[in-house]
Amino acid sequence: MSTTGSTLTRKQQVPVGAQQLHIAMVAPPYFDVPPAAYGGIETVVADLVDALVARGHRVTLIGAGRHSTRAQRFLSTYDIGPADRLGEPMPEMVHAAKVASFLDTLDADVIHDHTMVGPLMARGRLTPTVVTAHGPVHGDPGEFYRALGDTVKLVAISNAQRSSAPDLAWLATVHNAIRAETFPYRAEKDNYAFFLGRFHPEKAPHLAIDAARAAGMPIVLAGKCSEPIERAYYAREIEPRIGPDVTIAGVAGAVTKRLLLASAACMIFPIQWEEPFGLVVIEAMACGTPVVALRRGAAPELIVHGQTGIVVDEPTELADAIAPALRLDPAMCRKHVETAFTVEVMAEGYEAAYRRALAGATDPWLTVQNGVRGSVQTTAPLLGWPAGTRNLSPSN
Amino acid sequence: MSTTGSTLTRKQQVPVGAQQLHIAMVAPPYFDVPPAAYGGIETVVADLVDALVARGHRVTLIGAGRHSTRAQRFLSTYDIGPADRLGEPMPEMVHAAKVASFLDTLDADVIHDHTMVGPLMARGRLTPTVVTAHGPVHGDPGEFYRALGDTVKLVAISNAQRSSAPDLAWLATVHNAIRAETFPYRAEKDNYAFFLGRFHPEKAPHLAIDAARAAGMPIVLAGKCSEPIERAYYAREIEPRIGPDVTIAGVAGAVTKRLLLASAACMIFPIQWEEPFGLVVIEAMACGTPVVALRRGAAPELIVHGQTGIVVDEPTELADAIAPALRLDPAMCRKHVETAFTVEVMAEGYEAAYRRALAGATDPWLTVQNGVRGSVQTTAPLLGWPAGTRNLSPSN
Fold first, then answer.
1. What is the ipTM score, two decimals?
2. Helix axes B330-340, B279-286, angle to 10 degrees
């Protein structure tokens, strides 16, 4: 409780743009950070933590289970993340309540929350809360973010996502990133098109089969097919299309996935919904594999049309896009990811977002006086830093 | 924002035990208040609101859809409650966020929250939040309430519930209530035992059949049987037991339910889990129908053993308990409900709980100074009531 004073002094002497930040990074509760296998958000969080520490910041990571990041401190809400209960609300609710009490013991400058329930706790908090919208922002989640109002600052993972709900309290757009060096680059391709994703109407692998077949190219498909809707879709749309030119690779593990990605002549991404990002697109390009995609969601934002892939408007155009895609330079695909989607670029984007969130907050002296952010004009004298205000720093 | 001052003055002049309270009552978002059909919590909330208003209090009801209570004000988060999405987390999350912003516009003395997600929002709030634990408090919900710590004051709906998690921040036990006058009283009984509840292993209607059959008594069973676990249980345990002495009445509507309850010679309540209350038990007694029950959960707390029912320890004892139950006085059963489980008794219990919650908060002047409840000892002068503190009243 008595450390705030010294933090204060140090920060007052450093220009805002250069000062070290203490970031409380809140991961979801289901998996280790980074995850052993499944867990896209936890992978992004781990990469972001490491890159922020490399940039000189102090990160307290709050998650579940174990971590193997460079965070200076790790606080865990569950000894083992309840991975088998992914999607259930209760683990996130318990997590949110525990995280809130952890945050009381920190002197974080900014809180970066990657969960869904957690952002509810930002209301009335003195420290600004930055929230990454990892999923869709229309329908239910959109209504939720809208109801949160200006209690949080939202970060979009693509401009496409952001423009689908432009009225939300957006602070920035920061693209997801991957570590390209963990993906094998291969310039010599085998003669197959590749589809990677769930067997689901929204991912529409049947359109990938149709396009490859029309282009006279074999296709390999890999992805999850376990939920009722996925199985029904598979029986209805995929099974009737299976022929000698179609290979179903099942759920590809990390190694198989990379092998199939790197060897493919192209990836087909016939997305049928406004997917806010599409990590497989940048994974394919990292392997030097161009992407043939429909112009939905973030696809046109991730692919440089005519250089790292071909983006078309209609499913019927996919087949004709394959030949030009095969003529694209694999090195260009790789280079695009190494330039635009690195964890360093992502960390830089988030750091700028944090500083913008901090700059948007009100005079801390007023906040101390009134306990409600930006509520009042007063000339009352400063009474010192009482206990219970240790989350406060002069930059928020 | 300027009304706080006058509220303040009025309340200062009235003794704490007698003063009118302004209660913000937060119902779940799924149904109207009271509900048209299904919705146990909403029924209790509606009765409580009406009884509190009758006691002279001011109630702002926050819910979804429409209300037909005596609340002086109603704020709705959804035009139509998302009843088809009962159990999904998102409607409760949206509801919680909207409720929190509604609460900012109120000068409530106390918030009474009946939802699951809502209590998360109590953290850091100046107005005390009383939460009724309507469901179990072991396992997941227990962990959740524990994580909330002292940010909320919990009300148990039975001592049995409370004793299953004695370490939680309990403020009081307040039994659920019914309006006995809405249940038909009948002293002359027909010759059947009655089971009312879901066809579920936890409710164990098969034990009711076994007991009635062993006692030579026909049995009627009514209740929901729609979810996979309920259907599987029915096929496994009920179907093989069906005979000429067993009548399955399906899901009984409100009218049929009351008719069957009132005409039954007794109700069998062979509960197999620590049910925190058991509304059907008091409904049966209100109809003058004694209850034969297992000693689990709140059953022994609701039934006066030997007067309004017979409570036994083992399923094998249920059959022998039926004959003595039939000798009990229906008038005594009715009278017990009219004495112990009236909405007036419930409202009195909650009012006492609210006053206890208010008395437990710290000196409001200190709270104004520091913005964090009970955080600091200071002799600093009072600066007046700034904007943004309008939820504050001298009694919290």
1. 0.79
2. 120
